[in-house]
Amino acid sequence: MAKFLPFTGTVLHNLFHKPVTTSYPFVPKEYPERTRGHVEVDMETCLLCGLCSKSCPPRAIHVDRDTHTWSIHRFDCVQCGYCVQKCPKHCLSIVPGYPEPGAEKKLDIYHKPEAIEMKMGQVTVDLSKCVYCTLCAKKCPNEAITVDRAAKTWEIDHHKCLRCSLCVNNCPRHALEIREEEGGFKHPQADLNQCVFCTLCAKKCPASALTVDRATKTWKLNEKECVGCGACAEHCPKGCITMRPAST
């Protein structure tokens, strides 16, 4: 009889307390505070700047601006949260819960909604405020800004600029801003009477939205792929391309 007395306390404890385990998955899992979960992305606010991909230690994130996709290898992700910290638009977050286990490595692909425009204006500088500290150039993830303190020059490559606003947010003199272009989003239009069909505009297009055929003398624009950067108009040797408001 004495052998059973040591277990009396345990039996009474179990009778009047809830069980330690839960009937998962029938009962939702409750995660304690600061528990590592999984990374989620808000594609409506994502700029596809690629900064999260560059900062990811295991290279689990891939950003493709051409196809407007953001993907993550769940098996490779270590839930460190570094991508969340580096995201300039705060569109990444770590939410409770872990991906379901599987026999194969899982790749989650998210697409940017076509209705949301990629272009968000251009970065401009007020040189009367600029002190040429080069901080904007150092913070630019795509090396689009060049600052020369000796010559007091500030230059930006708008075709490389991702409109991530990191330069604007880190400027100590508030000399930078992202300014929307007048007329909103614009598409290129060509004057075929002046065009020599040299194909230079198609070669300079970062989104491959232009198709030029010298044999048939045709010039076509894929409006869905066009990002309205104006590179085609800038490099046209005949000046026959103009940027006009896109049709709605």
In brief:
This protein is of the alpha+beta class and 248 residues long.
What does this structure look like?
- The chain is an alpha+beta fold.
- The chain folds into three domains: 33-111, 2-Layer Sandwich (Alpha-Beta Plaits), CATH 3.30.70.3270; 122-179, Alpha-Beta Plaits (2-Layer Sandwich); 186-245, 2-Layer Sandwich (Alpha-Beta Plaits).
- Helix content is 15%, strand content 23%.
- It has a three-stranded antiparallel beta sheet. It has a two-stranded antiparallel ribbon with strand order 1-4.
- The longest helix has 8 residues, at 8-15.
- The protein starts with 7 loop residues before the first helix and ends with a strand.
- The relative contact order is 0.12.
- The mean pLDDT is 84.
Keywords:
two-stranded antiparallel sheet; 3 domains; 248 residues; Alpha-Beta Plaits; 13 strands; alpha+beta; 7 helices
